[in-house]
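Structure ticket #2291
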Amino acid sequence: MGVKIRLARGGAKKQAHYNIIVSPSRTPRDGRFIEKIGTYDPTLPSEHAGRLKLDLERTKYWLGCGAEPTDRVKRFLAAAGVLQREPRAYPQKGKPKAKAQARLKGAAEAKAGTEASPGA
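Resolution: structure written out below.
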């Protein structure tokens, strides 16, 4: 079974804080975990020292054991210099579908045709 490094939510409604934990991939988000390796408090300002606390030595150990970090934890680890994170981009996702592209192309051609021949 795979092991994940992920966030477990804590705190009250609209006052969230997160524990960075190592847990089996099949356990629930706030369920049992193997080890707590850090904390993240999004309510603090980004430059505050207590916003992210991470035990880098234990994190490197679990990464060496094959633990897979989630995307948010990868961002934290990349900022700490532990690993490289590839930027994610979805250029195809925002494109219009085929019918909409044909409609836009037709509209652009019609507009170009009316601009080319000034009104008589």
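Closing remark: Strands lie at 3-12, 15-24, 35-40, 52-54, 68-69.
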